[in-house]
Amino acid sequence: MTGEAPRRTTPPLLARSAEDLIWLARYVERVENLARILDVTQVFARDESDGGQWRMVLRINADEARFLELHGEADASTVTGFYLLDRSNPTSIPAAITRAREIARTLRAQI
Predict the structure, then answer these.
(1) Per-residue model confidence as pLDDT tens digits over 3-34
(2) Within 1-111, where are the H helices?
(3) Prediction pTM value
(4) Nearest-10 crossing angle of helices 76-84, 52-60
């Protein structure tokens, strides 16, 4: 051993790449958290006839005003559709997965 530092075989992580990695993780975390919130609400809202539990999901995500403009009533079907199927909703699961995938494509070499 000569006391020299080992040579780096991978390129250094640039600040932009590090930021993209953070956002990639954040979008994946959003998907996981939203799926969990929807699952828990589905379990606990089974006995409720009103949309009170489902309105709370909208409030948690600060989507209540936009949702009510589009759908009117908050119930299991409309709220889950809003978050699970609506790609035009920027806080939906498909939108977050799309953003995470786009970031992953730019980071392909680092990943």
Answers:
(1) 676 665 666 667 778 889 999 999 999 999 99
(2) 15-44, 52-60, 64-71, 76-84, 93-106
(3) 0.79
(4) 20
